Amino acid sequence: MKKGLKNLGFLVAVATICALSFGNAQAQDAAKPEKKTSFLIGVKGGLTVNKFQVSSSVAETEYYSGGQALVFGHLNFNSWVGTALEVGFSQSGTARYNYQSNSVPTANALVDYRLSNVQANLLTYFKLPILSVYEPRVFIGPSMDANVYATGNREGTTFGSTTKTRTDATNSFKAMDWAMIVGAGVDFDLKFATLLLDVRYRHGITDINNARGLGSNADVRTRGWAFNVGLGFKIGK
Fold first, then answer.
1. Among 69, 102, 190, 226, which residue is least crowded by beta carbons within 10 Å?
2. Which CATH number fits the domain that encloses residue 59?
């Protein structure tokens, strides 16, 4: 828990430094005309790469790839600061999870878990207008994953024989996974729309192991990266 809080504190500190840096840049550029409030809606999607951080020393996991598709609304307060709400589908999980149990003959199996979630993100972002064509940005905010369905591809040994099975693992995980997101991206003005590219890190802050459903009483938290491409359309002037 202390380690997780320390990591979260570091992420918040990085975002704060970025915000202060952009605030100084805004003060230096005060002579330029300020853009009015604008609203952008659109869709984005891409690749996710995830793993579990497990408290047990024998449960080191590997990254597992998935995908996500989100709809979003961006409210730009001015040229520098805005907020975004994202809602949609996102996959998380891990590879080679060391499942341990003393109550079944398939003890010490290696399992690849994949979770299908409804994700909601509320992000605050800070933009640095450099040219009229593109605008770099950084962002931070809370994220929620609602576990809809999970599968487990298990490879283990039963009475001396190697077995491979696919199971419904939904109940092995808690219904909600709360996290923080930090990331960076760039927006390109295409005249008819805005092209958005971003990379983000999602840091789980809650234990998702549901009543020892993952084979032990270990503390299990999600860690993941996402690489997204999106297209947004301005509403109003």
1. 102
2. 2.40.160.20
